[in-house]
């Protein structure tokens, strides 16, 4: 029973795609039956294809006509298809029934693609919802109770244990911890939080238990606002789509009015007989149907999508393939997009009495007992060195860490923390550390405390064990940073040469770090210390200035901006599920240089679409003139109509070539 249930569920969720598939199968069978001489079977199978494939378009077209008093292309296609079928039965030219069925099949496929886009929107919202907790541990009358989030009230106090997600936005009233806010703000480092600081729903608590107090209702939390922003941005109809919809309805009205006039006026103006007028009017509906116009676009877009897929660029819909070629400004998220999102040791500066290896080994010995991301980066950088883990390690959250190695105390941490052990920090290192921090790098100071004469630590062999040394000694400093992607600078340079007018960087990191990365990469404009909704507002301002704006990101915090942008581009390998679902384009291997490839492919697509539209309109105009002058009959009209469709389809397939 499991397989039938799954099949039923799949059919229910993808009814539009199943309808298009079944329509195509009945059309194919009807075509074979007709060409093999089984007319009865053909006349049975082809109407079924009409009903299955055309039901949704007919329903939407009639709904629009009845409720909005508007004609659209859906209804026009059904009328043209039925007209072709009627002509085929009337004049026993049965291939016209197949022509109408093909027209319906094209529209069924279009409806299936639209349904897929709607389901993708729903999936992105569900992915966001997975970040929210269903329950919270609330403190009431001295006891802890687990209650649903929706029952929380302003003023409630809740407990969050180490390793748990924060259930809703609140303020810390007791405790200290570090929180991983990458999902919300995109910051590459966990943020230290203590009493009085605000925490956000969906962020991950570190090592410390926290007592929080709600200062706003759960439905007003940041993650809930992100969900609403994604919903709003994805459901808003862009101006280009509005123009297309207006054009379709206008085109339908013109064709219907022209068809009616062609039916009524010629018998009075040119003495046509009514049979000829009806024949010409129906022929007009067939040759004027926009099959060639549709074929001018969809095969081209599908070929471009296939081309992109071979190169690791996933276009989720054809409209964005066209749109990417029109982009004038690109906004990049910093962490995980322009940078790798991974902390690495980038510089080690020892004092004159030590080597870089000495500094790294001492730091790794104590940091190996820590789970802090800075410590993990130091341990990773020291993997090829010979060191042993410290004992009696004590961590001071937000400050540093201390441990014992061979009867000697090693200290690693911020400068203020190390000053508690070393009275005077070397002036040259202070200056170097200041410059490194201005570059957006985190500096860790390494020092040791010697416990007695002759107890000299033997990282090197330069010190004689009988020479007394000061109790405190600075070994050096280690600079750690989220490293810039190797191809980022070159990609930005090439994008500017391609004609992109503005390169913007958006980040939740501090202004100093952001500006440092921007200078290194050649970014034109920087917006720092942004929350998800701030990124959305920046994208909207850029759209007012540049109209067509792309957003490149990888995190949940980028989802609203990705949805709002004219084109949302997600990093496929490192990107969050929400970013991948929300974006229009996914770079499957996180290769930034593929953005240039996508833009070039988009521009090429625009060129071919314009060429195809010109060809399609040219054929339609010639066929309409010929029909009006009586120079073509229905078979010739169908040949011209279908011939132009085939021609523009083959033209669109050119994009299959790299």
UniProtKB/TrEMBL annotation:
Molecular-function GO terms, alphabetical: ATP binding; ATP hydrolysis activity; ATPase-coupled monoatomic cation transmembrane transporter activity; metal ion binding
InterPro entries the record matches: ATPase_P-typ_cyto_dom_N, ATPase_P-typ_P_site, ATPase_P-typ_TM_dom_sf, ATPase_P-typ_transduc_dom_A_sf, ATPase_P-type_domA, Cation_Transport_ATPase, HAD-like_sf, HAD_sf
Record keywords, A-Z: ATP-binding, Cell membrane, Hydrolase, Ion transport, Magnesium, Membrane, Metal-binding, Nucleotide-binding, Translocase, Transmembrane, Transmembrane helix, Transport
Ranges where the P-type ATPase A domain occurs: 131-231
A Pfam family: E1-E2_ATPase
Transmembrane found in the keyword field: yes
Membrane topology: Multi-pass membrane protein
Record-listed E.C. numbers: 3.6.3.3
Compartments reported by the entry: Cell membrane
PANTHER family the UniProt entry points to: CADMIUM_ZINC-TRANSPORTING ATPASE HMA1, CHLOROPLASTIC-RELATED, PROBABLE CADMIUM/ZINC-TRANSPORTING ATPASE HMA1
NCBIfam families (alphabetical): ATPase-IB_hvy, ATPase_P-type
Entry similarity comment: Belongs to the cation transport ATPase (P-type) (TC 3.A.3) family. Type IB subfamily.
Full protein name: Heavy metal translocating P-type ATPase
Source organism of the structure: Fischerella thermalis JSC-11
